[in-house]
């Protein structure tokens, strides 16, 4: 369509962002890094990795698909109990896989 821009039309950002890029109003990546991988940019527990330990009760473990990070994010209203269960299950499976390997 004429006059319509897509995210592919934007310049490519060459900066590495551990938690990914911030999105603009159109949902396209900007060249600004996210400060947190948690829902709505909520702060994660600093100096605490859930890769080897479980998160405190009011947090869930967020693991990057590349295993670049494993941080404890606060539970927010957007995260329902089903999703919490899924995160805990993924964590326990990853620990199991490491112990078996």
UniProtKB/TrEMBL annotation:
Any single GO molecular-function term of the entry would be:
serine-type endopeptidase inhibitor activity
Keyword Transferase (UniProt): no
Q: Which domain of life is it from?
A: Eukaryota
Domain named Antistasin-like is located at: 7-33
Q: Name one Pfam family in it.
A: Antistasin
Asked if the Swiss-Prot or TrEMBL record annotates the protein with the keyword Translocase, the reply is: no
Q: Which UniProt keywords apply?
A: Protease inhibitor, Serine protease inhibitor
The protein's name is Antistasin-like domain-containing protein
Q: Which organism is it from?
A: Adineta ricciae
Lineage at the top is: Eukaryota, Metazoa, Spiralia, Gnathifera, Rotifera
